[in-house]
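tool=predict chain=A
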Amino acid sequence: MHVPDGFFDVPVSVGAGVFAAAGVAVCLRGAKRELDDRTAPMAGLVAAFIFAAQMLNFPVAAGTSGHLLGGALAAILVGPYTAVLCVAVVLLVQGFFFADGGLTALGVNITLMAIVTAVVGWAVFRLITRGGPRGRATLVAASFVAALVSVPAAALVFTALFWLGGTAPIEVGSVAAAMGGVHLLIGLGEGFVTALTVSSVLAVRPDLVYGARGMTRALTLRTADGDVQVGPAAPEAPSAGIGLRPVLVGGALVAVLLAGVVSFYASSAPDGLEKVAADKGLSAQEKPHAAEDGPLAGYSVKGVENQRMSGGLAGVAGVGLTVVAGGGVFYVIRRRRRAADSMTPASAQ
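tool=predict ok
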């Protein structure tokens, strides 16, 4: 759902840019509460994984494909505020280095793919986990539903923005029906990838799943007079079986493998937005990208003739750029939190 330049008029583009900037500013402050010694390194990995996964378009209908948006996944793994920053970093890297998503539409893309998906995904996830039985099955099911709902929600917001300032004379109802239908199918794929990823992390290090904290059952002692609560289990406590570093290294290798190798076999069909834009005539409004002549534009390395190698090298470079950019942001936020904590009297903590 990377919106290119030209789909929206200036007022909507500027307004979305201001909204996105304000949202990112709020999340920079909110992320200080989420980025602890485990979440901070995980956030950089999550951003890199989302970048890699977005290169893997999967078929959803005849002549149409979809790819992970990642907002719900990031919210469940590292928290909603940090999730917005993760996806925003990915979009910045894609826009400036890979000519994917318009630069004047950057505010629109951050609003749709980062803010809407993270907020909606997290809200649905918390609604289900708070109302359902505690346990891994509930967490995985909630992850699936949250991710599924977040994608058509982003499509709905796109339609609302198009109604406010779309540049093509297309009936809004027609855009809504087309966007909603195809992105509901894409949401199924998003839900599957999200549930699989969350389930995998839960199996290895459940304490690394932000959304799982506080979700274990309280420890009780059965007595003749009835159950007596002894104390809550602590999902926040690091698991003894595997350290954080192997998880990070393994996750980074998975991201590199996805972006550098598996991406070559991704569907070449247009994604949901591209398909709708082509069918409805909106694609005629697309403007040339300012970075279309860049060395990594189009997810290929200029000067490398072998298509497979060119795409693979570009994918690996993108993972590296995302890790550096995201890791830098999260390191600064974490460092400021530590500084603030050190200045706070122990009695006030």
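The domain at 10-348 is CATH 1.10.1760.20 (Arp2/3 complex 21 kDa subunit ARPC3). Confidence is low (pLDDT under 50) at residues 230-236.
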